Amino acid sequence: MADQADVQQIWQIADAVCFDVDSTVITEEGLDELANYCGVGDKVAQLTKEAMGNGMSFREALTLRLDLFKPSLQVVEKFVQEHPPQLTPGVKEVISLLQKRGTAVYLVSGGFFRIIEPIAKLVGVPVENIFANKLLFNEMGEYEMFDKDQPTSASGGKARVVQLLKDTHRYKRVVVVGDGLTDAEACPPAEAFIGFGGNVLRPSVQEKAKWFVTSFTELAEPLKS
């Protein structure tokens, strides 16, 4: 069984690192912020709580939440424009250190591509390295549904993304960093999972993580040696 020292060693020699976005790379939850912007934040938060308590699948919960406020293309674009991403302190440095070592960096999220794209640009991650959900609109720009072909649109999606990356690029050492159980569940196929509690500390995630950190400084230090 891997322990903290093993995970730290893999972190230093990783071929690829997959970061969760909401409450990891950024300090907030993108869907919650979009719902707040549309004036239905409390209703969506309540629905999220109920979904988690009732063991609802990720896809079912996402469908219910989006159907509650059906964000139009115009609203999403305006939200992105008026709501610049709040990066978690130190994340940009960690991504830069990894890339200088030749480690590929990906953003893997149950959130939405249109909201994550500006975040990727801010932290220097290529747009093609984003795996996230895509909102679908009709020709009038009205919300229709989300793309169910995206691996991150279903439970277990992050594990599928990691496997896809390993099959495509022949990565041998993939590390997943995130604050949620969906991140922990991506290991395996990832070789290591690092729990992040700098924005939201989840005891269930802390329990599953062999290495649990509460700041990106802790992740930066081993990369400087």
3D architecture notes:
There is one protein chain. This protein is an alpha/beta fold. Helices cover 49% and strands 16% of the residues. The protein has twelve helices and eight strands. The chain has helices spanning 4-12, 21-25, 30-37, 41-53, 58-69, 73-82, 91-100, 113-123, 157-169, 181-184, 203-208, 216-224; strands at residues 16-19, 104-112, 130-133, 135-137, 143-146, 174-178, 192-196, 211-213. Strands 3-2-1-6-7-8 form a six-stranded parallel β-sheet, sandwiched between helices. Helix 3 runs antiparallel to helix 4 (41-53) and helix 4 (41-53) runs antiparallel to helix 5 (58-69).
Structure described in brief:
By secondary structure, the protein is of the alpha/beta class. The chain contains 12 helices and 8 strands.
| Sequence of strands across the biggest β-sheet | 3-2-1-6-7-8
Shape: globular
Low-confidence stretches: none
Oligomer: single chain
**Which class of secondary structure composition applies to the elements?**
alpha/beta
Cα end-to-end separation:
25 Å
Helical coverage, percent range: 40-55%
Structural Rg: 17 Å
Number of strands: 8
Question: Beta-strand percentage?
Answer: 15-25%
SSE string, helix = H, strand = E? Answer: HEHHHHHHEHEEEHEHEHEH
Number of helices: 12
Mean pLDDT: 88
Report the sheet with the most strands, covering strand number, pairing sense and barrel closure: 6 strands, parallel
